[in-house]
Design brief:
Elements lengths: L1 H31 L3 E5 L8 E6 L3 E7 L3 H14 L9 E4 L4 E5 L4 E2 H5 L4 H24 L2 H4 L7 H8 L1 H9 L8 H8 L5 E3 L8 E3 L5 E3 L6 E3 L2 H8 L8 H16 L4 H30 L5 H6 L7 H16 L8 H7 L16
Antiparallel strand pairs: 1-2, 2-3, 3-5, 4-5, 6-8, 7-10, 8-9
Helix pairs in contact: 4-10, 6-8, 9-10, 9-11, 10-11, 11-13, 13-14
Length: about 350
């Protein structure tokens, strides 16, 4: 019975992919006025973005977003940013519903470019990524996106949920953390003046070109909140190597560009605190899939398919950074021992067996 159900699900997925292929082919042909020569799936066939090779124009990226609102948000952001010289793809066309066609940026994802690199290369790549990210924020604000896009993370319930993540994760896994100073953290991390942010500024959403420049794509989740959130999303990601000296130099160099109305010291205080809780979210996702599948995932597969980094190396990287960042802030320092314990939660398992997941 289980085998029959599995076959039925696979058959339905094949039918869905074929419907997706036909619709994207027809829509791209209609929007661009020429035939589609080929369709490729660089992120795997389960992704909502594909590489479409047009008969005369050549390759473009077609994305079908989950909602019209997300597609409209991305179109608005790209239409504002690209003409101002921001490091983003050009918007070529959209169907005013869920599909948009963008310029292809040749290169490799930042997450892949960072893997197994020396500290000098890591610093150079992240320096370019942070420069591009702050340029996008500034140009978006100049274009009026602070007010035109949805405000993110503005409710008190959202903030409480963020601050509760270590407890939720730790209690579920039998490694409960001590409780940080929630009152001061609620005040510190609350929304100030909403400013344009990418929000989903993970290395998997950035492309490194041959000349080393970093472009940012996938703007469907952008909106308005605190600019430092984007810096935390990038530096706290599991695909960013844990190089404390490089991290310190990058923060010192770039934080003023993300600080907005805060002093540099205030901004560092905010960044470390926000980052501690964002790191717990990444850690929770890694633990979720590790428990579900038993084995660690294959790193190359994760990065090529833009998956959560469910490897022992990346879990320990998250925990090492979480422990260090927690100690930077008196409100979060009680979480440092918890991160140290979490680093060894699955230590009985081998580091990276070659296991691929769907």
């Amino acid at each position: 019975m289980a085998a029959k159900t599995s076959r039925s699900k696979k058959s339905e997925r094949r039918k869905q992919r074929e419907r997706f292929r036909k619709k994207v082919t027809a829509d791209c042909s209609r929007l661009l006025g020429e035939k589609v020569a080929a369709m490729e799936y660089p992120g795997g066939k389960s992704r909502d973005s594909v590489r479409v090779v047009m008969e005369h124009r050549g390759p473009v990226i077609a994305s079908v977003r989950k909602t019209r609102e997300r597609a409209a948000t991305e179109c608005k952001a790209l239409a504002a940013l690209a003409p101002r010289g921001a490091p983003v793809p050009q918007l070529i066309a959209d169907d005013k519903r869920r599909l948009l066609v963008q310029e292809e940026i040749p290169g490799v994802r930042l997450a892949q470019a960072l893997h197994r690199q020396d500290e000098h290369t890591v610093e150079r790549l992240l320096d370019s990524a942070l420069t591009g990210l702050s340029d996008c924020q500034r140009l978006g604000s100049e274009a009026g996106l602070d007010d035109e896009l949805k405000t993110l993370g503005k409710s008190f319930d959202w903030l409480v949920g963020l601050l509760d993540r270590p407890a939720v994760i730790g209690n579920f896994l039998g490694v409960p953390p001590d409780t940080p100073q929630l009152g001061p953290l609620e005040e510190l991390l609350a929304l100030r003046k909403p400013r344009f942010v990418k929000w989903d500024s993970r290395p998997g959403n950035a492309m490194v070109t041959d000349d080393g420049k970093v472009y940012w794509f996938d703007w469907e989740h952008c909106g308005a909140r605190n600019r430092l959130d984007d810096m935390a999303w990038l530096l706290a990601d599991e695909y960013v190597p844990d190089c404390p000296a490089v991290e310190e130099r990058l923060i010192d160099k770039h934080i003023a560009n993300f600080a907005d109305d805060l002093s540099v010291d205030e901004a560092k205080h905010y960044l470390s605190a926000y980052g501690v809780f964002h790191l717990s979210i990444r850690l929770g996702l890694i633990c979720k899939y590790k428990r579900r599948d038993g084995d660690w995932w294959d790193h190359d597969y994760c990065v090529e398919r833009d998956k959560i980094g469910v490897t022992q190396e990346q879990m320990r990287r998250i925990c090492s950074r979480g422990e260090r960042w927690a100690r930077m802030n008196p409100y979060t320092e009680v979480l440092a021992p918890w991160y140290a314990k979490m680093a060894n939660l699955f230590q009985e398992q081998p580091s990276e067996p070659a296991r691929q997941v769907g």
